[in-house]
Amino acid sequence: MPIDDCSVAAKPREQLLCSLFQTTPGYRACASGWKPMVICTGSHAFKDLINTYRMIEQDDFDINTRLHTIVRGEDEAAMVESVGLALVKLPDVLNRLKPDIMIVHGDRFDALALATSAALMNIRILHIEGGEVSGTIDDSIRHAITKLAHYHVCCTRSAEQHLISMCEDHDRILLAGCPSYDKLLSAKNKDYMSIIRMWLGDDVKSKDYIVALQHPVTTDIKHSIKMFELTLDALISFNKRTLVLFPNIDAGSKEMVRVMRKKGIEHHPNFRAVKHVPFDQFIQLVAHAGCMIGNSSCGVREVGAFGTPVINLGTRQIGRETGENVLHVRDADTQDKILQALHLQFGKQYPCSKIYGDGNAVPRILKFLKSIDLQEPLQKKFCFPPVKENISQDIDHILETLSALAVDLGGTNLRVAIVSMKGEIVKKYTQFNPKTYEERINLILQMCVEAAAEAVKLNCRILGVGISTGGRVNPREGIVLHSTKLIQEWNSVDLRTPLSDTLHLPVWVDNDGNCAALAERKFGQGKGLENFVTLITGTGIGGGIIHQHELIHGSSFCAAELGHLVVSLDGPDCSCGSHGCIEAYASGMALQREAKKLHDEDLLLVEGMSVPKDEAVGALHLIQAAKLGNAKAQSILRTAGTALGLGVVNILHTMNPSLVILSGVLASHYIHIVKDVIRQQALSSVQDVDVVVSDLVDPALLGAASMVLDYTTRRIY
Hints:
Layout: E1 6-12, E2 34-40, H1 53-58, E3 63-66, H2 76-97, E4 101-105, H3 109-120, E5 124-128, H4 137-148, E6 151-154, H5 157-165, E7 173-175, H6 179-184, H7 193-200, E8 210-213, H8 221-238, E9 242-245, H9 253-262, E10 271-274, H10 279-287, E11 291-294, H11 297-300, E12 310-313, E13 326-329, H12 335-345, H13 361-370, E14 401-409, E15 413-420, E16 425-432, H14 437-457, E17 460-469, E18 472-474, E19 479-482, E20 493-494, H15 496-503, E21 507-511, H16 512-523, E22 532-537, E23 541-547, E24 550-551, H17 582-586, H18 588-600, H19 619-627, H20 631-655, E25 659-663, H21 667-681, E26 690-693, H22 699-714
Parallel strand pairs: 2-3, 4-5, 5-6, 6-7, 8-9, 8-11, 9-10, 11-12, 12-13, 14-17, 17-21, 22-25, 25-26
Antiparallel strand pairs: 1-2, 1-4, 14-15, 15-16, 18-19, 19-20, 22-23, 23-24
């Protein structure tokens, strides 16, 4: 259980680099540079919590000063007296240590005493995890520390914007992510069953127990005690092994402990009641729990890294950003309501959330510390409204590019790219697409891991992974239902789970035609349009439909299979099993088929053309022959373009879009024929609809990226 009552004072050593010394249990980065001087106060020195300061010593830190600042009583007056006691004791300590920077973490009342003392004694303060919103007195304390602090390290973009709105100097704000995620995202694969058995019993299995952690709400103590009582009743009824952690020492905690003892929780066979769990072990317990319940910030922040289901009770964390693993029960006023939430959440597995960090916070903070100039004036400056937009992005040591990992699974190649918010492909990786499922999935994982590591070096923050693939896709589940014949062993494939588990990122999957439409909506000629259709002309023929600004998937995820619109009842056979489809006429495969026929009859090559013996005849040879005057090649292309044009006419009559975008390598060769067919065959009411060639170079990759960038930047919890 994290306890946030320890601060670090640091002095620079001559000719050495800065380092971060963060000692909240569970993470730290230590390198030669700043000399850490640890001040241990509050809960760490509290005997009822088993003297957790020893955990700091076990991490090879020397505690310079340990102050007993907690006044017993567990009520509002005791909290005030504890702050006062700390304020009385701290000046002597700070005078003795004479630190240059005080690192203060979080929003506990103990931290407020540390920040107040440092500010009044002209010591620079770096505050970690400012700008967040929860829903109790912690908000007021957190924002008070923000006003006292000189430098700010925040975890989310919303927190960054809150700090800017609070008139903090944008030059002194770093959006780094939560340092605890650096440890969390590398912890899940360790041996965990021994830890589960140690705390919950030998007969307990992974995902078959609950972790409960509930604290008093100091602004409404009476209600929070009643809610805790209802929670325990619901857990007793739910009848699952449960690890219950004692509440913190805020006002109201004494009454909550009485409720636990009144209900016999400490002696109940289904419950294990403990005052503290070492952080390394706590990580494993929540990572493999069937559910976590309570109102701790740990539930809405750290637990999201594992996708563990969480039930957040009451208002204590009401303002927090959360992942989809969190179910809020804001009015937890009945046992049945909490019990129903347990039935809904227990045993589920959600995608891993990285709202609060991506595992690279510590390197960013180290870089930020290096930029601090101890010679600049100590007096804080406030940036009063109007607030500039994206101001924190103007500084080199803070600048990061919000980006997505985009994956394009084609019939021939497998491509992975880092794509920025502006649609710029920062870096692209290409490999041949393997023929078997196992080789393919391993290669995807390998390429994505390498790209994610490279993104950190390129100063890109990866928000998620988007995958474009051929075939019919269920985007809700991230599953390829049926693939095209070009990609073998690719039916009923769950792409979301292995990538999410490996990269700890949210993952989106969709059909390549739909991705092309999404790319046009965000980056291309469909931007701002309410209704348009995209047609891909490549190896096959695909497409995507945007209607009322949204992508149409259809009831069985089969919408926009535009390549299989039938334009002739007696046309050539199609790969789908039918005949007369657009794809049977106008796809790259169809043109290759016709080119081979001409070549076999010695009717393809004209003067100025040659095909090397080791080169397969393809669609491009047919196009080249047509350009050089081959009448038969010209006729085939005209027939293909006419078939495509008739398909577009059907689309115009069915969907009545405001724009049709032709995408892919063959689009420019078909555009004029398609427009001629529309003039001849379409109703006059749709003949003015514009048909254009896409100007996007990689629509599949850009569309895959847009799924990530659109969702992660517009989502409101």
